[in-house]
From TrEMBL:
Superkingdom, taxonomy of origin: Bacteria
Signal peptide feature range: none
Originating species: Vallicoccus soli
Protein name as catalogued: Endonuclease/exonuclease/phosphatase family protein
TM region positions: 30-51, 56-73
Keyword Transmembrane assigned: yes
Amino acid sequence: MLRGGLWAAVAAAALVSLLRLDGSAPLPQVVAFVPLLAPGLLLVLLAAGLLRARPLAAAAAALLLLQVAWAAPQVAPHPAPPRGAADLTVMTANVEVGRADPDAVVAAVRDHAVDVLVLVELTTGLADRLDAAGLARELPERVVEAREGAAGAAVYARTPLRPAGLVGGTTFPAPVAALELPGRAPLLVAAVHPVSPRPETEGAWRGDLRRLAAWSRGAGERVVVAGDLNATRDHGPFRALLGTGLVDAAEGGPGALVRPTWPADLGVPPLVRIDHVLVREGAAVPTGSRTVALPGTDHRAVVAGLAVR
């Protein structure tokens, strides 16, 4: 009976792994939890060894090696920051339809010396409360597309910003801001929020990520994409977005495997990283990343350091 249960666990892991291999496969919400297969497979491998069940051990080991191969790109180090680069700290947060604590958001901006703040699910009410809490003093420049519900987004900054349009065709508005930096060409900062991949919205989710990738390919070298992408490296459409030349600031080193951002309101650590700061290495090199708890929202914020060329 124990062997049968272990074989069932291996079969389930194999099925989920097949979904991950096929970037167009259904059930993206299941695929997001692929990294959680590794500890389970390790336990199966140990149990198979104790039972001297060689075929079971071989199957579990093969799937575990596949997990290691998928994790390897995340822990590969980023290049060293270029000489003369300017430090830039970018923070992004999903503020859960305006429910995040504005004082906590402003405190995080202040405590982490944030230069650029990207918010999604920003409502007009929260935008006003953030300014009342001091955000206008910390980050006076802004390009804001506040909306009721989950559709709002904004970019705030210390240095001048100018509107640079929208990422075309996405379900929620994805404003783009040109960030002026002394002595350097502007950076295009896109505040993005592809729709959540529920069964009824999976097609729209794929379309949002596809349109974002198309925008990234045509936006030039100096690009930062930040927000709740509702996707991880285990999703084919997200890997296609990275394939346009973007890198994830949260990757690089073993810490990349322990920086999940969602769900953050269940009294246990978050499980998956769906909030990202992505940058084209022609524009900047990531220098570190951390997550920050914000009361009132089910996401952790991401704070990323960038060495801007």
